[in-house]
């Protein structure tokens, strides 16, 4: 028999899955507007992380009483798909898409933080705290990215993608270089593997 507490937890997990899928789709929409490879890769990496969040939540749901039916009903998609919306063909529409992605991630942070007080399973509670932390981390990086590209000249390529937006520190992160605003005095002398370890 499913208790009211179990039913509430299942609803929280299902809602969490939908929220993660929404964040993933919005990250993909923004990332695919760029021709600059490292920025596209950054959004793809973050979208993949969020997709893993939804997958793990799905496992939590499946392992609960009656959870297998709920997982089937949720219809978790297998192929990553960008959010729908008008084409991103100018800086204004790009900034609007960024804003939608930020708001989706902020909603995820609020939801997961509240969820840590509403579920009894300590492993699920801990995982939801991790999810909130991951989204906060993403927003930190993406906020600096937006600030760096804002008001830069852009034009459309023949493939109708925005270019050029060359942001060297994004490419450097994939080589293990810590972004300047995240460096601490004690880490300057040590190896800079922060980003690679995180990914």
Structure description:
- 63% of the residues lie in helices and 2% in strands.
- It is mostly helical and 199 residues long.
- It has a two-stranded antiparallel ribbon.
Strand arrangement across the biggest beta sheet: 1-2
CA-to-CA gap between the ends?
40 Å
Number of beta-strand segments: 2
Give the mean pLDDT: 82
Summarize this entry quickly.
The protein has 7 helices and 2 strands.
Feature tags:
Ferritin, two-stranded antiparallel sheet, 199 residues, mainly alpha, 7 helices
Per-chain topology:
Blueprint: H1 4-31, H2 37-62, H3 67-74, H4 91-115, H5 122-149, E1 155-156, E2 162-163, H6 168-173, H7 194-198
Antiparallel strand pairs: 1-2
Helix pairs in contact: 1-2, 1-4, 2-3, 2-5, 4-5
